[in-house]
Request: fold
Amino acid sequence: MTRLSAGGRIDRGRELRFRVDGEEFSGHPGDTVASAMLAAGRIEVGPSIYRGRPRGVVAAGCAEPNALLQVHGDPPEPMLPATCVDVRDGLSAETLSGVGRVGRDPDPAVFDKKFAHADVVVVGAGPAGIAAALAAGRSGARVLLVDEQRELGGGLLDGRAFVDSRPAVEWVDRAAREFVELPEVRVLSRSTVVGHYDHNYLLVAERCGERTERPGPGEPLQRLWHVRAQRVVLATGAHERPMVFADNDRPGVMLASAVRSYLNRHAVLPGHRAVVLTTGDSAYATAVDLLEAGAEVPALVDTRPDPPPDLVARVRDRGGQVLSGSVVVGTSGAPRISAVRVDELDDDGVPVGSSREIACDLLAVCGGWSPAVHLFGQAGGELRWDAVSAGFVPVRREGLPEVIGAARGTYDLAGCLAQGFTAGAAAATATGFRISAPRVPPASGDRPPNRQRPLWLVPGESGSPDQWRDHFVDLQRDSAVADVWRAVGAGLRSVEHVKRYTTISTGNDQGKTSSVAAIGVLAEALSADSPGEVGTTTFRPPYTPVPFALMAGRARGKLHDPVRTTPMHSWHVAAGAVFEDVGQWKRARYYPRDGEDMDAAVQRECLAAREGVAMQDVSTLGRIEVVGPDAAEFLNRMYTNGVAKLPVGKARYGMMCTADGMVLDDGVALRLAEDHYLVSTTTGGAARVLDWFEEWLQTEWPHLRVRCTSVTEQWAAVAVVGPDSREVLARLAPELDVSNEAFGFMQIRDTALHNGIPARICRVSFSGELAYEINVAGWYGLATWEAVHAAGRDLGITPYGTETMHVLRAEKGFVIVGQDTDGTVTPLDLGMDWVVSSKKDFVGKRSFARPDTARTDRKQLVGLLPLDPGEVLPEGGQLVAAEADRTPPVPMLGHVTSSYRSAALGRSFAMGLVRDGRRRVGEVLQVPVGGRDIGVEITTPVFYDEEGARRDGRQSR
Amino acid sequence: MLRIRCPWCGERDEVEFHYGGQAGVAHPDDPHALNDAEWGEFLFVRDNPCGEFTERWSHAAGCRRWFSVVRDTRTNEVRAGSHVPAARKPVAP
Reply:
């Protein structure tokens, strides 16, 4: 056991038992899985992803590249760093080789979302962040302090610093109590700012479920905060860097700061005989703490020839050895480290070649510190290389978050406190809460990583860089110096390209430990003067991985998207309708009777519409009121056909195009008064058309006196279709003369139904049959639907859905915008020249004269009859010439847009867009499907009642 | 997510808005007077500067009004546009 007998921020009063890789461990509240494993003397985790090399715990936080867990459960949680998973009783996990497994079943846990505004958001609760939040919070500003760890303090918890001559953790505790008392300050611990987006928009992943051992029923496991901040202060700290030397991936090679964290936070001694390797001052504290905890330090290896004498003395006084101007050039062990080879460095930082071996069971490495500038980078900030602190630091700019403390290369405690107080006060003041920065208390203790001598690449004892396959740069991706050399050898120079070629920094740790080390190696490979010449890769969210289930939150299943239903929806449900989604609308697709499949139901519904009477809920059609003295002029510019001279009380089918001449939408315009139109749109196009109208009215023709209002939801509508529809209407609307002479095609009548419901009835048809559309106020929708159904019961009135509607209209060759068109189709391509006015101008007209639009061999709408009348073509099927060579790319002549089986025709049929289609009528093309060809004959697109004889219904009534 | 100031409603999140592309590209008064190249230019060609760009937005989930802003495409900094309301052609006050 390597648990120290005293110290640490763990609750020794409770013991928690858990299993990793089948082995039983115990730990205490305050332990992570990694710290508890280390306490039991286990440092090794799963082997590496590609090369199967033994690996061990390296870090103490979210930067861990090796110790990834698959936590068992329902569902399992893959790829969690053991350094971030708290121990809990009964936890079971296995270590991974860089690849986890997601569960098969949906995650039943609750994931929540929350939206918040803050005056000041402070990210990171180390000394700088706490100081900033204190200063800002005391002003009365609304402050959010976000920190990824379970307790506040950041690096102060790992070390032995003092504030006001008292241990710094006491200052942290006092601050935590003050935060509770400040009413506008909220502290989110166990919460990671994973994304920093434009204009101070932050995404915070809060692991609220970790605060209890198991969340109660309905309580969220995690919560995603969307936070808009006026000011953001980033106190995100820094990550310690490993060093690149031969066999630097051996279990027992750890970051020096991680060793110190395990010692002081968890009272765990990760090794008994530790070599410390450093390029600066900070790792001396690790050596001192190791010695004081009872470990041997046979060598503190410092790359600098002249380390500060007081630090050297501190190590030697406690029985440790210091080797200055030296470096570790290799390790050995089976597999855990048992010895290092140490060599002296010459003035150029090259080992002189007289290495000696030192036995050890731990190597604590500090290759320098890299400010955690990820969020600053995401926010669009630029970085510069700072030679003094040997790191990439943020470049300040107005409009970007203020970065303080280690995140900007300031490592001394007094400096962090001063920057925090100043930045916090400034941020609050900028949001209108005036306050000056508090006095900075005296601070002492840990030495910052001053005066570094970075060594980006420790040469191997033999061979050349292109052969150094065991000098690891990215442990998680198993990438080594040889890979970087190969990338450079392949001609790559940009760090972005090298990253993608080598996959360095693309693991789920996103290169928190490896990225700057890789840049250093690349700088060596390119013989650049400093890593600053190479630059960094782009920082993108998320900072740490987040589950998809958290992104989804509660917007899953029925809550994924809003659902719109018509007033008659309950009737359709009771009638057993099968629904389809049209935009957000639920529309009845067909109404199967006992044992019917869709085909059978649609055949029956179609026959009723063609031979008797049928009814459809058409409430979902978009409706826009267009009102004003210039309404007629305005619509005349929008529609391809004329609507200005449309008489009051009449309806007209119309089409609209975008400026490039392509079909935008279609529908029926009713003229209710000289200055009042009611325009209908397709179900899916309603919002788009209203936007389109508004755009033209506001930005091009603001002088036109027109107002548009969406009234889709205010109306419900029932289409009554078929030769017997006149009879049904006569029963429904006793005051109305329904004769063909009195109520002609495309006319509108306002009347009252027999039950007193006021109705507007339009004689329009989308099936070619005699048909009426009964429009009533939305709240009368269900009553009207039931009244229509009752009135036609003895005539066998048949409710039908969208599938039958599609078949009926396709038999007549009527297009559906968005199904038979796709934004590249003009009205002329559809053969609808009759809807294009030659007399007036309208939006898009000029484009019909463009050479490409005027071509006569464009894709045109045609009918398609499969040679086998029983064969229904798949919509989207490609049309190719029979003689075409089938070696890709096969020339595509067009595609099938609509395809059905027709009861009226007694066969299958389809429509499609075919290049030069109108000239091909009579030709036979092939639709290759699943390895066979279906032959189709090109026809004109009207299959049924071409002369329009059925529009007026039965002749005698 | 951008924070955009609607001249009528104030600052709101980008999700409330629809993007309308470059501002100041007016529909020609008489498109038929343009040759094909000029008409094609109007239809298809827009500026794509690295820097300040005057663009149109519609407060689609709010007041439904169009307006224009100046956005720096490098930093996404946004300030009020020169012609509000955002006519595609500037409107005389």
